[in-house]
Specification:
- By secondary structure, the chain is mainly α.
- About 65% of the residues lie in helices and about 0% in strands.
- The protein folds into two domains: about 270 residues, no CATH class; about 100 residues, no CATH class.
- It is elongated, with a radius of gyration of 28 Å.
């Protein structure tokens, strides 16, 4: 939900604020403060998302090769550096979009759509377009388009570290995307300043054909206090004059904070920033590197296309261990977990024990899942009721 909020609200509102600030004659301290607070708010919430994912014990258990970059000793330092590098990136990206919008709405649309198409083509050509959520048929394709678009946009503005995951952008594309967005910011300043200087030159050098002897442009006459720099742009605002300084300062801050972040995290996870594996390759590698059954079973939480290449291996593993799991009844071996397994991978012995057609079998399993959830809730209520408050 946090990601949806930034995609639909935080990013657009920040661009609108910056766009309005660039269009004003005077730099408003209150407006700049508001934009800075918005950037810090976005940075803090995105940082907590990444850190929550990385420090989640369950995720570190399932995917130890990816989760674990945040050390146990200096997490506050890592968090502060992530907030700074994210906030500086947010400000650069928001400023860049505002400048391009003021320069040309067509160019802005061309950039946004072109950048997104480039990313989607990259995913399609690598056979990595399908999103990892275990959804059926057409719904899976629709979700893939929506989530790929949303994640790409969010990373463009906030570079959420978690989205370097092979299931999302992938480490290499994530790192390249950061560089491309930094370059976009410098390019936007160059284009905006060049266009502004052309406009200023045209207005200052403008001469009416009937007033050849007039040395001062009729569009930009400093003596005309009522119209000077009102109807026509005749000079840069304070913010426009300092654009290069602002961008360079934000860039330097971003580079130093990112460097500090790299040297503050566990260095064995640097490789995740340049990982070229697709989501399918990561899922298979994660399964083969798993040390326990619960870690291997996690592969069924993803879309079946992510493990179709090892379906025979999975079938054999399930067949060899199914009876033992039924006897031991581990906590993770539930009807809900079994429901994620494609029917053609389920052990033959288990399928023979089910009555009815495939559809009826699935429906009966869904009922079992509902009953399991009710049982869990009942047990939790009983536990809470039996808890005794300590005496004060």
């Amino acid at each position: 939900m946090k990601c949806v909020g930034i995609f639909s609200g935080s990013i657009p509102s920040s661009i609108v604020q910056s766009y309005a600030l660039l269009g004003s004659d005077e730099v408003s301290g209150a407006a700049m403060f508001s934009i800075a607070i918005s950037a810090l708010s976005i940075a803090y919430s995105r940082t907590t998302i990444s850190m929550d994912y990385d420090t989640d014990p369950a995720k570190r258990l399932i995917s130890p090769s990816f989760y674990g970059y945040c050390p146990d000793t200096n997490r506050l330092q890592v968090m502060v550096l992530m907030v700074i590098m994210t906030a500086s990136h947010v400000l650069m990206k928001v400023l860049a979009c505002s400048l391009i919008l003021r320069f040309s709405n067509v160019w802005f649309q061309f950039y946004v759509i072109g950048d997104l198409i480039l990313f989607l083509c990259y995913k399609i050509l690598r056979g990595d377009f399908r999103y990892w959520l275990n959804l059926p048929g057409l719904l899976s394709w629709i979700a893939s388009v929506v989530f790929r678009t949303m994640v790409k946009t969010i990373v463009d503005f906030t570079l959420i570290v978690h989205f370097r995951h092979p299931f999302e952008l992938g480490g290499m594309y994530w790192s390249a995307n950061v560089v491309l967005n930094q370059l976009f910011c410098f390019a936007s300043v160059y284009l905006y300043k060049k266009d502004l200087n052309d406009v200023l030159s045209d207005n200052i050098n403008y001469r009416d054909g009937t007033e050849k002897d007039v040395r001062v442009s009729s569009r930009c006459n400093p003596a005309d206090f009522d119209s000077y720099n009102v109807h026509y742009v005749c000079e840069e605002s304070g913010l426009e004059a300092s654009l290069w300084n602002v961008v360079i300062c934000l860039f330097v801050l971003s580079i130093f904070s990112f460097g500090g972040f790299l040297f503050s995290i566990n260095r064995e996870y640097w490789v995740t920033l340049f990982d070229t594996r697709t989501g399918t390759q990561f899922a298979v590698d994660n399964y083969k590197a798993a040390a326990t059954d619960v870690m291997r079973f996690d592969i069924f939480t993803h879309h079946p296309i992510f493990y179709s290449s090892i379906s025979e291996e999975l079938y054999k593993w399930l067949t060899d261990n199914w009876d033992r799991w039924e006897d031991e009844e581990p906590d993770w071996f539930t009807a809900a977990a079994i429901l994620n397994i494609p029917e053609d991978i389920l052990p033959v012995k288990f399928k023979l024990g089910l009555d009815g057609s495939k559809g009826e079998q699935r429906e009966s399993f869904k009922l079992i899942v509902v009953e399991e959830e009710k049982a869990v809730k009942r047990n939790s209520v009983i536990v809470n009721q039996n808890q005794v408050l300590p005496e004060v």
